[in-house]
Design brief:
It comes from Kiloniella litopenaei. This protein is mainly α. The chain is built from 19 helices and no strands. It has a single domain, classed as MFS general substrate transporter like domains (Growth Hormone, Chain: A, Up-down Bundle), CATH 1.20.1250. Helix 11 packs antiparallel against helix 14 and helix 15 packs antiparallel against helix 16. It is globular.
Length: about 400
Amino acid sequence: MFILNGSLYGSWAARIPSIKQGFDLSPGDLGLLLLLMSGGAIAAFPVAGGLSDRFGSARVTLSCAMVCCLAVALVGYSPVVAMLCVAVVLFGAGLGAMDVAMNAWAAEVERDYGRSIMSSFHAFFSVGAGIGAGLGAIAAWDEISYGHQFFAFAVMLSPLIWFSSLPQIWQTQKDQGASQKDKAAQEPETKKKGPRLALPRGALLVVALVAFSCAVGEGAMADWSAVFLTSVIQVGEGQAALGYTVFSITMVAMRFVGDRLIIRFGPVNILRFCGGAALIGSSITATASGLFMTYLGLALMGVGYSIVFPLVFSRAANSKQLSPGVAIASVATFSYGGLLLGPPLIGFIAEISSLRFAFGLFVLLALMVVIGSAAFRQSEGPQNEVRQSDGRD
């Protein structure tokens, strides 16, 4: 499901220049369109959480996957801007709800598995995004319309959804009938008390801001990297679509080795390295005048953004201020907020200045990651992240 979600997102991201050109959208218009998508996702977050609690996260994930396939096909065949807006809202809601549900499902699988595997799940999301963007690049290169591509993509993904719907594939302990009462009895008393939702404070607020900074960059890369290459570097759609593929490949490569690097060098050092890579990469991208240097900058940004989210959620789970669930929820709000608000923010800045100037924002965000790395030192005392990563609790 992480691969499917990522491939849908990557396929959409790679063809944004085609959609922009097809409807003759200005940067501000495109920013508004992406804001509609973000609004649909944000509205779906609490709904998906409630449905997952009631019907099981696996069922909700599979249902949302089907909605996403229908919505992306509708995006491809929208004849007018009004219908495109409706389709984009539906697509955003489907992706947002699926994101919440599949992460809840992954957490259940992780508990059944007995050790931390969340980083690998997110690595497979990046694999899917790279596949989707790569197929989008091929379609753009062959001058296949995005409508035909999106429809074909939805049809291709249907067998995967059907296979995943088999009970022996998706059932976890919760779906097999484990009672909520028994699960609650197993939880520590500290997790049962306290608010269901709380704003992060102190060091946890810095952690949340690091998550927000990374999320703005990662979300904007998906929607704006191809547009940057066509509008600023002035290359063809096929070469432009490969930009996000380069970004995704370096990100997934780092995520697959992330746990071992954290164990070897510690979370603070790894976060500083990631922030530095993002800082250098964003500087190169924002000032590049050629295709190769832009690709290099995007590759370094992929390295920089790769391991931040696993570190953020691990740090939140070891918070001394809030219970793990509440702390993770509070930080996740900043993460997903940045992921969804980043693309329209770049559009608005580009509208009043230029797209190259808007990409300079990533330099400041990467600097925030480097500065905020000190807030991750608290969890290094007992080596919580290391123990969580290799399962020695």
